[in-house]
Structures are given as structure tokens and as C-alpha cells.
Amino acid sequence: MGDAGEGLNIAHQAKKMDLEDMRTFRDRFQVPISDEAIANIPFYRPPEDSAEMRYLKERMQAQGPLPVRRGKSESLAVPALSAFDSQLQSTGDREISTTMAFVRILNTITRDATIGSRVVPIVADESRTFGMEGMFRQLGIYSSVGQLYHPQDAEQLMWYREDKHGQILQEGINEAGAISSWIAAGTSYSNHDLPMVPFYIFYSMFGFQRVGDLAWAAGDSRSRGFLLGGTSGRTTLNGEGLQHEDGHSQVFASFIPNCRSYDPTYGYEVAVIVQDGLRRMLTEQEDGYYYITLLNENYVHPAMPEGAADGILRGMYLLRDGGPSTGSGQAKKVQPRVQLLGCGAILREVLAAADLLANDWNVASDVWSVTSFNELARDGIQCTRENLFHPEAKPWVPYVTSALEGHDGPAIASTDYIRLFAESIRPYIGDRRYVTLGTDGYGRSDYRSKLRSFFEVDRYYVTLSALHALAQDGTIKPSVVSDAIKKYGIDPAKPNPVTV
User: Fold this and answer.
1) Exposed, middle or buried, 319 (CB in 10 Å: 0-12/13-18/19+)?
2) Is residue 13 very low, low, confident or very high in pLDDT (cuts 50, 70, 90)?
3) Number of H helices, E strands in the chain
4) Which DSSP letter does residue 334 get?
5) 207 with 229: CB under 8 angstroms?
6) Tell me: the pLDDT tens digits for 309-329?
7) Using CA atoms, how far apart are residues 115 and 107, in angstroms rounded to an integer?
8) Is 253 in a helix, a strand, or coil?
9) Quick one: which of 182, 180, 174 has its CA closest to 198?
10) Domains of the chain, earliest start first
11) What is the rounded CA–CA span in Å between residue 328 and residue 305?
12) 247, 440 Cβ separation under 8 angstroms
């Protein structure tokens, strides 16, 4: 800045005015501040009847009401968890994906008498990929001019129906435009005193990586709603290569302080998370939004275990108890035991590894479904902070620490994301050995089983890692690990996936 605040082209790095410049500025603009007071840089407000204030008020009145940002809006009742009962039950022999489970949940919400009309489904180009075409006839695709053409699929049951009163926003191949629409709906409670419920579903690789700055802006503007990352995980969308195979969006989501992120495996987990999100954002009016990753892999979904809801929301729960660790016979030798953690696409590989450990190596395994490593890590940070500020109070115990208490053995975590994802909870695991497996490296095109073997996160590598951890603890002999390498045909000379 030049004299009296005149702008100069070199002013970008000028952060303040010196005392003489402030005096010059004061004299030029006739600001009634004394030489004695000016050194303290006081605020000055002209009198209400001054020419300056009269001018400001006249201009403000001419422009209409001032914009208002509300922290609270109308509190809305949301469907109870029982409304999603079909997703809480087993699928029987039928195999479905978590994407299909989500679409069913969304259909239930759109039919709700209170919030159904507030729902804003948003898709960037991929409605049919995500199985949402059934909503075309029910809700319609919004168009300000209606449907001015005969759609190519008009003879199909679920044809592409545009309507002036449509509820779905079909944004085309425009992720930035879609998330901008999502932010507009997600901040409507504040800007327009009209709470909306936006659900934007996209290929997870095209979410935070492509529009990460807008995802950050969504948190900064206190957006409320759901982002759904479909076809998530680095090994789930075989045939698409590194363009689509996401192994890091959950880590990106952890960067945004008020984004709650989950990587569920089963339909009942998705239902619990969505219902609680609706309650927190619409009824309790909490700031923040949700990122939920969804899968395109079909498999049988079990019914929700009794009492699992709290753990699902907090980040992990015991999915399968490995049973007592005492063997039979005269020696009553204690059976080796491990804790296996998994989420999303890889949890089912972890369950298969538990079977291998039991049947091939007589090792018991407790299997944990970790719905959110990010929520577990944040809880651990909060507990650490509370203990720092209250050294004489009863210590806070991180949820993951208390959950694993009484469950012996090293912990092995395997996910479809880079190792950094599971590494976030290492400080809160306790004294036990902790091993993380992940999909560090570029994606590639092949069958899911081949990709999981390539990235070393499948059932055989989980089993091998568990045996190696037990050997390091001195529980079993190292030769057992060598036997497992031979038994499962693992090539020790294969290249590190990060390097190829």
C-alpha cells in the first residue's frame, strides 16, 4: 500500500500500515481519532445521524433484507430404524450389493410423509449404473422446461422421464456441477430456512479426488447431506483400471473435520448409518455431512447382530467371536488367537481368513467389522486431548481400546484402501502387535480375486500376516509361516505392488 492506503501493484505482500501511514489515512478521510489513540488502532463507527450512516442505511434498505445465515432451522422427524427393517434382515440366498441396499433405503426415505419431498437425489451421468432408474417414473428428473424430446428408452418400463416437477438432479458428466448442486441443497436449511436432504452418488474415484476443494468448501459452509462413493475400493471394479479404482477417498474424507465417513460391508450397516445421519442432521440439526462408500459386488448379506447398532456408528463391532481359546486333551494347551479387522470389500476376505486360520493352523480369530477407521481415530484423538487437560481425572479410554480389551492376540487390519487408512488407529490399539494391509499402488484391470492377491490383501495374505505376527510374538514357530507360504502358493519374489 502507498500513502494513505493507495493501492500499488506490489501491494500483495503488504500486511499492515505503519503509524505515519495511518495518520495520513486518518487525515485524508477525516476520521476523528486523536494522535494518542491511533497507535492502538481503534475501531471507529460514525454517529447514527451522520451522512455516512444515513447513506449506508438508505442503500441497504433499497437492496432489501440482509442475507442471513441460520445455524438452526425447522427440526424434522425422520423415519425410525424400523422403517428400514427389510435391510436389517438377511437377504437369504439372494446376493446383492451395498449400492442396491442403499437404493432401497433411499426409496423408503422418498416415501416418508415428512421428509420424502425434501429428498434431492443427485447423479452425475450414472443413474443406471447405480440401479436408480426405478426412480425415474416415481420421482422424475428435474428439467426447467420439461421433456422436449422422445427418449430413446421410452418403450422400457423405467424410461428416462424429465419433468418440471422432477425431484432427481441428473447432472451429466459434471462432478463439479453435481457437488455444487449438492452444496446448494445441503445449505438450504441455513440460507432459505428450508431443510433439504441431498444424496449425491458417484464413482468414488470421481469424488474427493476430482472435486476435493468443493468437498472442503461443503464442510466450511456447514452443508448437511450424504455423499455416496459407489464402486469404492481399489479391487472392486475389475476391468476399469486405475481410472476408477479408488483406494484413498476414505483418507481424503478424513481431512475434512465435519465429514463423518464410513465404509460399510452389509446393508444393515448402511441402514443404521443413514438413519442416524438423518436424525443428527434433520432432527438434532447438527452441522456436518456424511461420506459413505458403497460396493458393486454382489453377495449374501446377514441379518444385523443384536446390539450392533452402537458399534456400527462408533466405528467397529464384533462380527464373529472366535470362541474359547483353550484346546482339548490332557495338556489343555491354550490355542493361539488373533484379532482380525476388516471393512468394505475386504471384510469378507477377512472372514474367509478366519476359517483358514482355524481349519489349517488351529488359530482362533475374533473378526471385527470396522465401519469407520476415521471415526475411531477421531475418538482416540478426543480421548487423548481430554486426558491431557484433566490429568487428575479418570482417564478417557478410546473406544477401539475398550472394544479390544479382553480379546487376546495381535491385530491384523486389511482394507481396500491404502495402509494409511488403517494406520490411523495404531496409537489406540494398546500394547498388542498391530499389522496393516492395504492397496498401496495404482489400480489395474483384472478379476477381483487376482487384484486382491496382487495387492496382498486377500484371505491368504491376511492368514499369512496373522501367522507371522504370532511368530514374532513367540506364540508359534517361524517355520509355520514358511509352511503357509508354500501351502498357499505365495511367491516371495513377487514385486511390491507400489513399484509396478
Assistant:
1) buried
2) low
3) 19, 15
4) B
5) yes
6) 999 999 999 999 998 876 555
7) 12
8) helix
9) 182
10) 18-63 (no CATH), 81-132+168-300 (3.40.50.970), 318-499 (3.40.50.920)
11) 29
12) yes
Q: Whole-angstrom Cα distance, residue 495 to residue 327?
A: 39
47-78 residue pLDDT tens: 999 999 999 999 999 988 777 888 899 999 99
What is the distance between the alpha carbons of residues 421 and 254, in angstroms, rounded to a whole number?
Answer: 9
pTM score, whole prediction: 0.89
Longest dimension (CA), the chain: 100
Please name the residue that has the C-alpha cell 475386504.
346
DSSP per-residue letters across 293-311 = E-----EE-PPPPTT-HHH
- Please tell me the distance from the alpha carbon of residue 181 to that of residue 219, in angstroms, as a whole number: 14
Which cell is 343 given?
471393512
Cell output for 139: 420421482
Reduce the DSSP state of residue 464 to 3 states and report it.
helix
**318 phi/psi in degrees, rounded to 5:** -75, 115
**Beta-bridge partners for 461:** none
What does the H/E/C string look like for 399-441?
Answer: HHHHHHCCCCCCEEEECCCCHHHHHCCHHHCCCCCEEEECCCC
Cell numbers found for residue 118: 425434501
Cβ contact 424:254 at 8 Å = yes
